[in-house]
Fibrinogen C-terminal domain-containing protein
Amino acid sequence: MVRVAAAAAVVVVVVVVVVVVVVVVIVVVVVVVVEVAANWTEPCNDHWRNPEALTKWSNIREVILGIVDGGVLIKILRFKGAALTVLLLILDNQGEQSEYFDLFHSGKQEWRLAFRGTAKAGTSVYTAYLNGTGVKPNVEPACMGVDWRGPCTSHWRNNDALDHWKNIDQVLFTVIYKGEMVKTIYFSGEGTTYMYWMDLDHYLRSCWDDLEMGPHNFFSITGDYGSQRHFFINRNYGGCSNDAGWVVAIDQPKKTCPWQASDAYPVFKFAGGPKYENWNSARALEAEAIAVFLKYKKLE
Ligand SMILES: *[C@@H]1O[C@H](CO)[C@@H](O)[C@H](O)[C@H]1NC(C)=O
């Protein structure tokens, strides 16, 4: 029933949209709170979006789509019930289309870039992800996309994606090496928060055969906080020379462990082969970047 109603509502919305386009409307406004005190005759050459109203979209009983022509509100469409649900899903799309990428050439731009950590950016990748501390004010365009060979010297945090974490179907963690996305780990988005999805409970699949089986002594974004090892999926400790795992983002040196030493931070290490690696091994490679993508649930 709900599906039928939703499908009918989709048809209604599509018809409305087509009509709106055909009639060559001057301005279309969505009035969330019915306060039509606006002066429609004043000059205005831009769109306006109320970020507060749209991103914290909740407890809405009714939405009005108004059409302005000749300085007057000439049409009003009220959305309630099932039609409202459909309209909300359409209006409440997550972010800009430019934040979405067709990572696997599936023909669908369905993966939204939520975060990029850049090796040797000079600031903590952990706080960059946590709350944006250490993300440069004006990052290069390549930091916000998937041109992995383009110049990028900063982390990048998609604040909207991470701060409004909802309707997430899957989270994809990726490792970038020599300009290519070489490793992927998929997690379910169900029951997650932006800080808690990198764990065995949400693990779906990855490029590493033995990752699921473990064992693991760390499997989280926070990781080993004291040792500055984050986005850390580790198999075992055993003294520095025996430390082994799959992936780690190192924010700072730890004097006692040679494998953590570098001339600049952060350093991203990953097991280059299909199985875990000893962090001291030459097969534990250093990545240029790590990136987190989100796929949202769709209206079925
Ligand atoms: C970000 O998090 C760090 C670490 O918890 C904290 O020291 C810092 O004050 C936070 N910054 C902001 C802007 O919230």
User: Anything to note?
Assistant: Residues 22-26, 32-36 have pLDDT under 50 and may be disordered. The longest strand covers residues 168-177. The pocket of 2-acetamido-2-deoxy-beta-D-glucopyranose is lined by residues 127, 130-131, 133 (CB under 6 Å). The chain has five helices and 16 strands.
